[in-house]
Amino acid sequence: MELSLRSPMRAQVIKLVHVGIMVVAILLVRGTESRRARKLEEFEYNAISCREHSASVTEFGGVGDGKTSNTKAFQDAINHLSQFASDGGAQLFVPAGKWLTGSFSLISHFTLYLHKDAVLLASQDINEWPVLKPLPSYGRGRDAAGGRFTSLIFGTNLTDVVVTGGNGTIDGQGSFWWQQFHKGKLKYTRPYLIEIMFSDNIQISNLTLLNSPSWNVHPVYSSNILVQGITIIAPVTSPNTDGINPDSCTNTRIEDCYIVSGDDCVAVKSGWDEYGIAFGRPTKQLIIRRLTCISPYSATIALGSEMSGGIQDVRAEDIVAIGTESGVRIKTAVGRGGYVKDIYVRRMTMHTMKWAFWMTGNYKAHADSHYDPNALPEIKGINYRDMVADNVSMAARLEGIAGHPFTGICISNVTIGMAAKAKKQKWTCTDVEGITSGVTPTPCNLLPDQGAEKITACDFPEDDLPIDLVEFKKCSYRMSYLV
């Protein structure tokens, strides 16, 4: 006999089947979770802000095996945590492991914290690097005329952001990008490791940065920035792997950093030619202290060459340079416009250098052919004091602009030991004006010696800048998360 189900009975059977399926699904999920261990982490660190909420990237599908892409996991986690921006902020914890990822963007009132054994590995899949327009103060990319790849860790229009860790590592795996650059195959400018734009109250600290595709840390159009305890390492032959580049930024402090680089260890910038002039945003109130630099082909501290928005009030002290091309370098050219003024450097120690000091008004790399040949940069008020150097090939190479000299140069209490095969001409000076006191070897005639009584003539401000008054909080966390 054929059994026929009436519609009420049919509905009940279907409902029971659905319930059964749900029960099986729940048991499967619980079984999966039961096979994953929970781990407890306790850590603390100093930061401008502590957070009320915290999560691990593993809770959003992150896999730290060095092979699985975590780009979506990072961005999903950050998007989820954005709901807490107005409720005490949030922290994203990256546990020990190797976390392959492309570019991802930060949010305000947010901390990204890397465990001491965490490594962010930059993806070599070019599809995981969105393309941005050129920076408005540059008008074009630096590697190519078009746009630029988004930096690995990126943020714009943010406030109160911390990127830190227990000296966790960010590895840019830059050899892929360096090869493409050398072959001329890049349509866009290479990405940086960390770039924060149009933002305020930023802390980047206690991290190791390796093998960046190009620049390592690039705060731009931002203010109130702290960069502390950063170790940056790249092959000394790698192209444009600048360490830290404050660019059109106000009130910045860079301290306690160790940098081995294929380019400038710290490069202070503010836009390029007519684009930088039009944008008109200087870098000012910059502190650089307790920096150790190794860069055989570039400078410990460079001012320019992109300085068309102006650079003013830079204070650098307690700097060590080893095997580096130059100690302090000013780079500019006709067409740059802008200014570099009120620069103060003291207590610098240099070992095995090509030049201790280098200034040039003939750095001719231009964004395009539309620069104004009448836009002359103003270089004045450059103060160097209390320095020692040894094994130096040439004490100084100072080249201003004909008819528009660099002025107000002051060098005092500086002893430069020349290398065994040093240049016969220890100083070259053209189109510069200034004074010296207590400087060995004897400087050029354009920098006349004022006598021992003027040994403290070169200025160094003793007032505090606002960034020096920032107070840190002790942030402590106890986290349990699935692994």
From TrEMBL:
GO biological process, one term: carbohydrate metabolic process
UniProt keyword list: Cell wall, Glycosidase, Hydrolase, Secreted
UniProt cross-references to Pfam families, sorted A to Z: Glyco_hydro_28 (PF00295), Pect-lyase_RHGA_epim (PF12708)
InterPro entries, alphabetized: GH28_Enzymes, Glyco_hydro_28, Pectin_lyas_fold, Pectin_lyase_fold/virulence, RHGA/B-epi-like_pectate_lyase
MF-aspect GO terms: polygalacturonase activity
All copies of domain Rhamnogalacturonase A/B/Epimerase-like pectate lyase, residue ranges: 56-101
Location of the protein in the cell: Secreted, Cell wall
Similarity comment text for this entry: Belongs to the glycosyl hydrolase 28 family.
Name recorded for this polypeptide: Rhamnogalacturonase A/B/Epimerase-like pectate lyase domain-containing protein
Biological source species: Ficus carica
